[in-house]
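Quick one: structure for this chain?
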Amino acid sequence: MKRAIKNNVSWIGKIDWELRKFHGDEYSTHRGSTYNSYLVEEEKVAVIDTVWLPFAKEYVGNLEKTIDLKKINYVIANHAEIDHSGALPELMSRIPDVPIYCTANGVKSLKGHYHQDWNFRPVKTGDRLSLGNKELIFVEAPMLHWPDSMFCYLTGDSILFSNDAFGQHYASELLFNDLVDQTELMAECIKYYANILTPFSELVTKKIQEVLAFNLPVDVICTSHGVIWRDNPVQIVQQYLRWADSYQENQITLVYDTMWNGTRVMAENIAAGLCAADPVVTVKLFNLAKSDRNDVMTEIFKSKAILVGSPTINRGVLTSIAGLLEEMKGLKFKNKKAAAFGCYGWSGESVKLIRGQLDAAGFNVVDEGIRTMWNPDVKSIEECIEYGKKMAQLIE
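Got it. Here's what it folds into:
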C-alpha cells in the first residue's frame, strides 16, 4: 500500500507482523518488523530500496498498482542485504534496463547475491542524481553496518534515507515516530543499536559528524526498518551519538547458566550484596538458558559492569555462556567492568575461563572472581553476599 510521507515521497514497503527471528536465528524480533521501500515521484521517478525476498512478488504487484513500472527511471540500492534488496530480481525482470545506483561494494554484493549483470551505476559520497527540480545526494556509509551501505538525501524535501542506521525492528501501521508507543520504540532502538551497531561505534560517530558537517536540513529520516522519524528526527541522531560514546547506565547485570541451581544461588546472593552496598544501582539477573540472548545483550550494553557465571562442565562452561562470551568479543563493548563466578564439583575451571574470555572481549576484569564447591551452604552464601558488597566498591 502506498502511503504519503511528504510531498511526492511515499512509503511502499511491507509490514511483517509475524517475524520473530532475523539474520537467520541470530536476532529476536518480538514486535515484528517492516521492510521500508520508498517511491519518489518528481520529473524523474526513483525507487529507494525494496523488501525482503519472501515478499518480492507481493511488493512488485502492489507497486504496479501504484505506478506504471515503465515510468520508473532509477532504482537506488542503499544496501544489498537481502531484507532490502530481495525484491530486486522480481522488479528488474520487469524493468531490466533501469539503472541501479549503489556503491562500488554494493555492485559486488548484489552480483554475489543474485548473479545478475544489471545496469549498475556506482556512486560515491557527494555524487548527485537529478530528479528534476530536486536531487538525490549520495553518502557512503561503509560498515554501518556492511561495507556497501550508503545513505541518500533528497534536496527540497530535506529527507535522509538512512537505510539501517536509526532504524529498529518494530511493526506498526502507524508509520511515524510520533504516533507509536514511545517506550516500545526506544526499547527497540537501543536493542537494535546494542546488537547490530555496537562494533562500529567509532564509525557511527565519524559518519554522523561527517553528515552534520554538510549542514543540510533534515526534516524526515526514512529508515529501512520500523518507523519513520518526522517529529524531531534529530533526536535519534543525538541518541546514536550517546550510544556510540562507550554508553553505560548505573546498572550491573548478572548473567549465568546453572545445572543444579548452585550458580543461580550464587547469582542471587551476589546481587543481594550489590544492592545492600549500593541501594541506588539497578541490578538485573538473567539465566541465559531461559532468557532471550538479544534482550540480555541489550542489558549488558546498558550496564557499567557485568558478572558472568557458569558451573564447570567437562573442564569448560555451559554452552549458553560460551556463546555469549564469544558474541561479546565481536560486539566490542567498551568502558565496562566485569567479574566471574560459578560452582564446581571437582576441577573448577569455569571461573578462570570466563575471566579470560571477558578480558579478551575488552572488559576490565576487576578481580579473580568467586567460585563455590558443590551446592552453596550457609557459609558460601554469606561469602557471595560479601563478594557482592566488595564488587559494588570495585565497580564504582
